[in-house]
Design a protein that fits this description.
Shape: globular
Order of helices and strands: EHEEH
Distance between the termini: 29 Å
Strand order of the largest sheet: 1-2-3
Helix content: 25-40%
Number of helices: 2
Strand content: 15-25%
Number of strands: 3
Radius of gyration: 15 Å
Length: about 100
C-alpha cells in the first residue's frame, strides 16, 4: 500500500462510520483484485494499492487506485447497488445503502 497524503489539509466534517465503511470496501476490493491478478500473472508482478489526498479548496479529493484485474464493463453500472458483488458467495459484502442495509 502506497500513501501520498497532502500536507496541511484542514479538518473535515464527516460521519466517521460512513467513511470507514466506504474505505473498508474500497481497500478490501482493491487488495482482492490486486491479489487475484498476482495469482494469475507471471512472476514479477507487484500488487499495489495507492491512496492519495489533495486539498481542492472547499473540498478534499481522495483517490484509491489499485493495479488489480479491473472492473468488467458489464458490471460498472451496478457498482453502487447495495450488496452487489462479483466475488464468490461468502467473500463479498457489497456497499450498504444509506440506511445501512
Amino acid at each position: 500500500m502506497e500513501r501520498d497524503f497532502a500536507a496541511g489539509i484542514p479538518p473535515v466534517e464527516l460521519v466517521p462510520q460512513d467513511l470507514t465503511r466506504v474505505f473498508l470496501n474500497l481497500f478490501g476490493n482493491g487488495f482482492y483484485a490486486a491479489d487475484k491478478r498476482r495469482r494469475e500473472a507471471a512472476d514479477g508482478f507487484r500488487p499495489m494499492l495507492k491512496v492519495t489526498t489533495r486539498d481542492r479548496g472547499d473540498e478534499v479529493e481522495i483517490r484509491v487506485r489499485d493495479n488489480g484485474t479491473g472492473i468488467a464493463p458489464e458490471f460498472r453500472e451496478k457498482l453502487f447497488q447495495p450488496f452487489f458483488t462479483t466475488k464468490p458467495t461468502g467473500e463479498g459484502t457489497g456497499l450498504p445503502d444509506a440506511d445501512g442495509h
